[in-house]
């Protein structure tokens, strides 16, 4: 599904190199988790995959199925089936959450040559999905993420994901800022979307989320690349011992 | 040419309409005393008055006819073609709760002393020569007296056909106690349009005004609103301007009764690619009574060298305690060639008031743009959404949902046609 090869990325305006030869393959239908110290480049990787400005890819590739993502505009990547749940969801004053969702959904459908949803069909769909995520009518009416609590913003990301039904979902610290119940809601939302045709890449710092969303594969990322890959037990090991050993094995210190 | 000769020449080129001799003469005297504005006039420092001072209008090609707005709204339609009343295209000037006649055809007793009175009151502390000129010279307009809830809206349609038309229209509206009326205005009106609207809102009356200045490139317009708002009365005005090489919209709102409410808002969109765009909002709100609430909300979206200006003032007189005055002027510059100039002012002579004003200039928020695109919304469409979101506060000043939708549709249409 997703295949990142030897990805090198630097900041456009600075000489700072962030991704230093990243390799990662997520198979169709699988859930992969990425853990790693702060600043290791996890969010940068998700932004580069979704096409945010400000980064320069100096080497490597990132493919979604047969499509080279790095050649596409952000909206084309979305239409191709990529979705990023943001670590920091963006507030858009003046644009209603409903309008936003409907515009996005219909834009993607149009790009894929599918028929746009009517107002009625859309409303029915969004209400049903919002209900399972305990997002009330008021949150749907309000401007996108404006005045939402941290947890509400994260649930709103999952609502978008549920509406857009992407093939490849990247979740960047969707668990941060969630209370125990909200975490369960989000995890249930994700699990409901799990399917043999859909893959997930879950970025997290905590095992807690992985108790709910059971990953098939766990990667440890540091200093702009994947250092180690293993099964679910790798996350438990990190939870217990931290990153020191893994980093040291690769000649990195924790301070990095 | 001496200033007085220039003025005489200006007036001679455009003879005054009939009736209202006293009101016209007083205005002519006011105008003679103040003279036409010059470039060094403080109130005209960002907008060149020369095209309005000129004896005749600079020719302006009429734009393509626009799809009519407010067609679905139940309204009494009144059409002026290049400032000339079009009886054929207009509805009968009659409806429940309202007396309507034409300035050029009648002089009802209620109007005689009121004509020009609010304009005269609005000449302090700053001079508005083109308003005095309008009162003195206006060829036509409507005289509207509203005694109850008007049966429907009055829909003024201004058609521009002649390249050299130079209409001067003056509307006088008297809202009696508890009356309610909505006035709609659309269209470019002429090559050079001078319009004044005096609105006297009596106790508890409610007046709504929604205006769309024609999306025509070459037209020029100088317009004035003078409103006097009595106790517990409501005055609300919204203007949408798209295109037009020169527009100066002045408003003078005098809140004379306790618990009065006055909101005035504007959304202007200009694309210099179509030709010059210069839009000037000049607003003056006076609080002279207790617990008045005023809001000024002005937003401008500018690209390709378009220029927007805003001069706005909240003036709180001594004794106007518990005034709640708010003013915001903002621009969204879609490129680096465009410019927004603003002079927000507060002048407060009462100690127990709540007044705030702010002015900002900004660009499209890149983070928001990326967020939208990452959800599959194409770049131009995403920008359009962000522009609409920028304008939302101004558009929200339109109370009627159906009218609001028409305005939004018109905006969307403009945005679709002006993608970079
Ligand atoms: N636009 C930028 N300007 C300057 N530095 C940046 C920028 N973007 C990323 N960085 C730097 O790149 C490194 C990687 O950042 P990134 O946000 O990708 O880390 P992360 O792994 O997501 O961290 P966290 O776990 O804290 O979310 C950090 O050192 C960060 O400061
Ligand atoms: Mg991060």
UniProtKB/TrEMBL annotation, chain A:
A Pfam family hit: ABC_tran
Keyword terms of this UniProt record: ATP-binding, Nucleotide-binding
Family statement drawn from the similarity comment of this UniProt entry: Belongs to the ABC transporter superfamily. Ycf16 family.
Residues in ABC transporter domain copies: 2-248
Recorded superkingdom: Bacteria
Protein name: Fe-S cluster assembly ATP-binding protein
GO function terms (MF aspect): ATP binding; ATP hydrolysis activity
Signal peptide: none
From TrEMBL, chain B:
Domain SUF system FeS cluster assembly SufBD core, first and last residues per copy: 168-390
InterPro entries reported in the protein's UniProt record: Fe-S_cluster_assembly_SufBD (IPR055346), SUF_FeS_clus_asmbl_SufBD_core (IPR000825), SUF_FeS_clus_asmbl_SufBD_sf (IPR037284), SUF_FeS_clus_asmbl_SufD (IPR011542)
SUPFAM superfamilies (UniProt xref): Stabilizer of iron transporter SufD (SSF101960)
Pfam families, per the entry: SUFBD_core
One Gene Ontology biological process: iron-sulfur cluster assembly
Protein name: Fe-S cluster assembly protein SufD
């Amino acid at each position: 599904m997703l295949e990142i090869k030897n990805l090198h990325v630097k900041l456009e305006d600075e000489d700072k190199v962030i991704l230093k030869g990243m390799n990662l393959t997520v198979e169709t239908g699988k859930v992969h988790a990425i853990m790693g110290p702060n600043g290791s480049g996890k969010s940068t990787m998700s932004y580069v995959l979704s096409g945010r400005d400000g980064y320069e890819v100096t080497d490597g590739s990132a493919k979604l199925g047969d499509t080279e993502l790095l050649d596409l505009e952000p909206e084309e990547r979305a239409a191709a089936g990529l979705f990023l749940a943001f670590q920091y969801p963006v507030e858009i004053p003046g644009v209603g959450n409903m309008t936003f969702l409907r515009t996005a959904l219909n834009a993607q459908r149009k790009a894929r040559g599918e028929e746009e949803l009517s107002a009625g069909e859309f409303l029915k769909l969004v209400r049903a999905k919002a209900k399972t995520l305990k997002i009330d009518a008021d949150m749907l009416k309000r401007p996108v993420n404006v005045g939402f609590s941290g947890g509400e913003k994260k649930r709103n990301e999952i609502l978008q994901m549920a509406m857009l039904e992407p093939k490849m979902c990247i979740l960047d610290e969707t668990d941060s800022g969630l209370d125990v119940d909200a975490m369960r809601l989000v995890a249930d939302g994700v699990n409901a979307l799990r399917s043999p045709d859909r893959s997930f890449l879950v970025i997290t710092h905590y095992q807690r989320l992985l108790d709910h969303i059971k990953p098939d594969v766990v990667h440890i990322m540091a200093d702009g690349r994947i250092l180690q890959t293993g099964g679910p037990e790798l996350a438990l090991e990190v939870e217990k011992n931290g990153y020191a050993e893994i980093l040291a094995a690769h000649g990195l210190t924790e301070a990095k | 040419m001496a200033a007085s000769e220039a003025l005489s020449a200006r007036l001679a080129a455009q003879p005054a309409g009939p009736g209202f001799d006293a009101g016209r003469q007083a205005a002519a005297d006011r105008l003679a005393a103040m003279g036409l504005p010059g470039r060094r006039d403080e109130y005209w420092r960002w907008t060149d008055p020369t095209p309005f001072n000129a004896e005749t209008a600079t020719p302006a090609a009429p734009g393509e006819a626009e799809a009519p707005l407010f067609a679905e709204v139940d309204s009494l339609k009144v059409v002026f073609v290049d400032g000339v009343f079009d009886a054929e295209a207009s509805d009968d000037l009659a409806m429940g709760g309202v007396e309507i006649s034409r300035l050029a055809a009648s002089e009802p007793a209620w109007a005689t002393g009121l004509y020009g009175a609010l304009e005269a009151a609005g000449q302090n502390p700053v001079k508005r020569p083109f308003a005095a000129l309008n009162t003195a010279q206006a060829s036509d307009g409507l005289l509207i007296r509203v005694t109850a809830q008007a049966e429907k809206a009055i829909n003024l349609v201004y058609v521009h056909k002649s390249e050299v038309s130079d209409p001067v229209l003056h509307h006088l509206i008297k809202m009696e106690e508890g009356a309610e009326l909505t006035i709609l205005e659309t269209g470019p009106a002429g090559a050079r349009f001078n319009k004044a609207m005096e609105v006297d809102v009596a106790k508890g009356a409610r007046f709504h005004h929604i205006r769309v200045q024609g999306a025509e490139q070459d037209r020029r317009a100088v317009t004035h609103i003078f409103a006097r708002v009595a106790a517990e009365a409501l005055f609300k005005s919204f203007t949408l301007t798209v295109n037009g090489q020169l527009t100066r919209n002045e408003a003078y709102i005098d809140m004379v009764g306790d618990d009065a409410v006055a909101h005035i808002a504007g959304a202007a969109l200009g694309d210099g690619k179509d030709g010059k765009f210069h839009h000037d909002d000049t607003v003056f709100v006076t609080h002279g009574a207790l617990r008045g609430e005023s809001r000024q909300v002005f937003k401008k979206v500018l690209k390709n060298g378009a220029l927007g200006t805003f001069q706005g003032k909240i003036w709180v007189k001594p004794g106007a305690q518990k005034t709640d005055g708010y003013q915001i002027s903002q621009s969204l510059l879609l490129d680096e060639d465009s410019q927004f100039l603003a002079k927000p002012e507060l002048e407060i002579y009462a100690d127990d008031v709540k007044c705030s004003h702010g002015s900002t200039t900004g660009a499209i928020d890149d983070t928001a743009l990326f967020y939208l695109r990452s959800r599959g919304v194409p770049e131009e469409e995403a920008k359009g959404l962000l522009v609409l979101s920028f304008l939302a506060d101004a558009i929200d000043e339109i109370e009627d949902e159906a009218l609001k939708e028409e305005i939004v549709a018109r905006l969307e249409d403009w945005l679709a046609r002006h993608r970079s």
